[in-house]
Design a protein that fits this description.
Blueprint (H helix, E strand, L loop, with lengths): L2 H9 L4 H13 L5 E8 L2 E9 L4 H7 L8 H5 L6 E2 L3 H4 L4 H12 L5 E7 L4 E8 L7 H23 L13 H11 L4 H8 L3 H15 L4 H10 L6
């Protein structure tokens, strides 16, 4: 299935199940059998809405503690482009346990894989990982197509899962309000912030209160959390 065909049919899908079936057909044309979608914030997996892999693999993965050494997820937090698992060892130095991990994955039917990281609007990342039973030597040629399919799948899935969602009213924080929130995130009081920024404690509290009001937060901590969720503060 060509990318333009997938865009057309995926936009007309009526259920998440139908959309997933179309996506599996599309990526299956490139040899990928397994599909894993993870919602990630920082280094934490918040949700695994889609987990299609060989029977027993997920249990084996977590029971063996592979999530502690698997380099695929941490790389997704900083990568801006899709990357192939077989290329990871060319970019970073793998430990012996990590090399053994990839070999074990190959033995249980999760061999060559590609991960597409997609940045969300609230500091989250959707990680779409595809893998196949046997290693493919011609992966670079179709990487752009896989990337396009994954991005379209994520957008279509979001629309189906959030049919009533609209555009959010943007929150505009001043540079000083953002700076005060950054120090609140570090655990500083209004007095501490005033000393760090060379302003009065009352002025520091004024900027913090303004930021809280704009974010609809009832406390400084809540304001920091909302600001991170909306991409106004880094983790």
């Amino acid at each position: 299935m060509r990318v333009d065909e997938f865009i057309d049919v995926s936009n007309r899908a009526e259920t998440p199940g139908e959309l997933l079936g179309l996506f599996r057909t599309a990526v299956g044309g490139y040899g990928y059998d397994n599909v894993i979608v993870a919602e990630v914030c920082g280094n934490d997996i918040m949700d695994l809405p889609i987990l299609i892999c060989p029977e027993g693999y997920a249990e084996y993965y977590f029971d063996s503690g592979f999530q502690e050494i698997d380099p695929v997820l941490p790389i997704a937090m900083t990568a801006r482009l899709p990357y192939h698992w077989n290329d990871i060892g060319n970019s970073i130095e793998l430990s012996s346990k990590q090399r053994d991990f990839f070999e074990e994955c190959n033995e249980v039917g999760v061999a060559d894989g590609i991960t597409v990281p997609i940045r969300g609007p609230r500091g989250n990342t959707t990680v779409i990982s595809l893998s196949c039973h046997e290693r493919n030597t011609d992966t670079d040629r179709f990487t752009p197509y896989i990337n396009s399919l994954a991005v379209q799948f994520d957008a279509a899935r979001w629309r189906l899962m959030n049919p009533d969602s609209g555009l959010e009213q943007p929150v505009l924080l001043t540079a000083r309000e953002r700076e005060c929130l950054r120090w609140c995130k570090a655990g500083k009081s209004a007095w501490d912030i005033s000393q760090l920024l060379g302003i009065s404690e009352r002025t520091a509290q004024f900027h913090i209160s303004n930021a809280m009001a704009k974010l609809g937060a009832s406390s400084r901590l809540a304001a920091v959390v909302v600001a991170i969720q909306r991409g106004l503060l880094s983790l």
